[in-house]
Write a structure and sequence with these properties.
Number of helices: 5
Order of helices and strands: EEHEEHEEEHEHEEEEEH
Strand content: 15-25%
Structural class: alpha/beta
Largest sheet: 5 strands, mixed
Helix content: 25-40%
Shape: globular
Distance between the termini: 34 Å
Strand order of the largest sheet: 5-8-9-11-12
């Protein structure tokens, strides 16, 4: 959530379910997990999962960097805002003029910044695309120094935000493409962890 004023924000349709399913699957395999999550009503009660709740892209950037040096695998499944209001008003904006202009500025690119400081970590990104899916995902692997990207398309029925299912395609850093069938997100989480352990 990127605040506009005390009651309004810029957000997206992500529920966080994929990230929570990944955290639970990793913990069920014995991994110690740090789950950095944006605003969501979802919760996990597992002794191997520590949750850090954040609200903005800047907070997620700082939280991820605070633990990154200590992890072996980082899976960046969050749908982080690309832009935020240049000015966040400290009082509620009143309805006035017929038009209202909101100037935006870029937020920190959390995944790219992790790729810049990566040492031993296996870094996994997600790409949600609407066109030129494979080409755009491959560009992210190069630009963000990723070991694996999990691609999904809003054009695939049952995939993306707000669905209990997802249809993904794996692309590794050698640009090998492996499409997967539509599955429940819990099964997709298992597939992702299986893929990571296989590489």
């Amino acid at each position: 959530y990127e605040p506009i004023d005390p009651v309004r924000f810029i957000g997206n349709r992500s529920t966080g379910k994929m990230g929570f399913d990944l955290a639970l699957e990793a913990a069920s395999r014995g991994a110690q997990v740090v789950l950095v999550t944006g605003p969501t009503p979802l919760a996990i009660s597992h002794p191997l999962v520590r949750i850090i709740r954040v609200e903005t892209a800047a907070q997620m950037h700082d939280a991820c960097h605070s633990v990154f040096a200590t992890v072996d695998v980082a899976i960046a499944a969050a749908a982080v805002a690309d832009y935020r209001p240049k000015v966040a008003f400290d009082k509620k904006i009143k309805k006035g003029e017929d038009a209202f202009v909101l100037e935006l500025e870029k937020t920190p690119d959390v995944l790219a910044s992790l790729g810049q400081v990566k040492t031993h970590q296996f870094l996994v990104g997600f790409a949600l695309e609407t066109d030129n899916e494979i080409e755009n995902a491959c560009a992210k692997i190069r630009k963000k120094n990723l070991d694996l990207i999990v691609l999904n398309s809003l054009r695939d029925e049952g995939a993306g935000f707000g669905h209990p299912t997802n249809k993904i395609t794996f692309i590794n850093k050698e640009f090998e493409v492996t499409p997967m069938p539509l599955k429940a997100k819990e099964e997709v989480a298992r597939d992702i962890l299986d893929k990571i352990f296989a590489l």
